[in-house]
Amino acid sequence: MSTIKQDDLIDSVADALQFISYYHPKDFVDAMHEAYQREESQASKDAMAQILINSRMCAEGRRPICQDTGIVTVFAKVGMDVSWDAEMSLSDMINEGVRRAYLHPDNVLRASILADPLGARKNTKDNTPAVIHYEIVEGDRVEIDVAAKGGGSENKSKMVMLNPSDSLVDWVLKTVPTMGAGWCPPGMLGLGVGGTAEKSAVLAKEVLMEPIDIHELIKRGPNSRLEEIRLELFEKVNQLGIGAQGLGGLTTVLDVKIKDYPTHAASKPVTMIPNCAATRHAHFVLDGSGPALQTPPKLDDWPEITWDVGPSTRKVNLDTVTKDEMLDWKPGETLLLSGKLLTGRDAAHKKIQTLLESGEGLPDGVDFNGRFIYYVGPVDPVREEAVGPAGPTTATRMDKFTDMMLEQTGLMGMVGKAERGNATVESIAKHKSVYLMAVGGAAYLVSKAITGSKVVAFPELGMEAIHEFEVRDMPVTVAVDTNGEAVHTTGPAAWKSKIMEKINVEVV
Fold first, then answer.
1. Which residue in 323, 358, 339, 378 sits closest to 64, CA to CA?
2. Helix or strand holding residue 4 (H, E)
3. pLDDT per residue over 318-374, tens digit each?
4. d(CA 137, CA 423)
5. Measured at the alpha carbon of residue 149, what is the angle toward residues 476 and 495, in degrees to the nearest 5?
6. DSSP states of 435-466
């Protein structure tokens, strides 16, 4: 029988969460690099280059891979013969580890968890509580998997109750295109099949803790029907042409994972959960000998990647840019933004809407006329930083407010990640506005272009407050131009066509 001490578990959880905030798993880095090397779409290749460069920068600087440092999910397997030297419950110990990790002064992590989700939605300020799954198993050890799951990818989770005769492959291929690019591909798909509705969701989340091994599976060949389906889905999902960040390309998924469980004869519950380009998870075992701390990888594990914006890149002064200048911007074109940039996310947009509807107007210091807004909730800065990691959030969540912002505030353009809805694209064209895309999963890299930051409104919203950034050469892509042409529509369609043409030629 082993005795697990309270502080050992707390320290192990805190260490794991700090570790995964700035270290990608090596299997993810290797898979992303392999996809980068064989990518033929320049837009997707550039996006993956930024993700890999960001990953190495985070490993070196020990700062978060993504500004969304996630909701903590824990799978705890507790041995029946374990005893505890503790005054706290196991859940309280885990949550204390989360609290210490997210408030660590050397690497502050963004607190994103809101209590009272149907009411006040008040930030708990320390990212607790975690979502914890327990299993009582044989033995005298405690085995823990811990992950930090970003909201952008979690929001794209899909669940369905298929008929027993329905095809899982058909459902996945029909569903993945509806997920858009808000989950920051390329990443992994976790599929849970069987049990009951809630069991399939837990299976899907749990299987995402496993390492990327699809290329090993391709080499040795499948040994089961489940492995055959994994291979089929890996090939066919990538043939959809969605590509990195939804820009169109050869790689949409780095792996497809499936975990199943016996189910009712009348049922086939299925949940699909994507993992984004900020894949973060760790594993440790406590056996009574002390805390289980993570072992840092070698920086040699990261490839040497460079990314050059090229001589044709357009430089834009946000302080003087006009709508006439924007008419020349082409879909897919890279811009380097410099000047003052306002920020705002869901909660800020909701407050703006309320103020405008009441006739009260915007608060002092907030003037969107002729300005651009960046959809971001940054990490707090440490040491000499102007701001912590500050990558874009999913722009589609702001679609419901876009027409209001363009119509009533004089807003000229927006910066975010992923696609916009059809109605929003029409509104952008109507107002001769633009939507620019920054790469999700490159938050630390993006933050290096931010030279100054101050809160100008709604400080009570924490990371969702309106900031004014001073940026210098911040790289973005024209995602929707003033005519309403959207690269997230044209790019994947073009690459799906290219991929299918190539397959047809090979078959002939």
1. 378
2. strand 3-5
3. 999 999 999 999 999 999 999 999 999 999 999 999 999 999 999 988 999 999 999
4. 52
5. 45
6. EEEPPTT-HHHHHTTEEEEEEEE-GGGGGGSE
Count the helices and strands in the chain (H runs, E runs): 15, 19
Angle at alpha carbon of residue 101, lines to 98 and 104, rounded to 5°: 145
For tokens 């959030």, name the residue: 393
**What digits encode the pLDDT tens for the residues 490-500?**
999 999 999 99
Separation of alpha carbons 479 and 333, rounded Å? 8
135-146 pLDDT per residue, tens: 999 999 999 999
Q: Is the pLDDT of residue 35 over 80?
A: yes
Check if the beta carbon of residue 487 is closer than 8 Å to that of residue 418: no
How many Å apart are CA 392 and CA 10, to the nearest integer?
32
Residue-level pLDDT at 507 = 58
Q: How far apart are CA 108 and CA 389, in angstroms?
A: 10
Rg (CA), the chain: 23
- Mean pLDDT confidence for 399-428: 96
What is d(CA 269, CA 291) in angstroms, rounded to the nearest whole number? 38
Domain locations in the chain as residue ranges: 1-150+299-305, 152-277, 314-491
| Domain 314-491 architecture | Alpha-Beta Barrel (3.20)
* Residue type present at position 175: T
Nearest Cα neighbor of 476 from 303, 339, 274 is 339
DSSP element (H, E) containing 150: none
One-letter amino acid of 311: P
Confidence category of residue 274, pLDDT binned at 50, 70, 90: very high
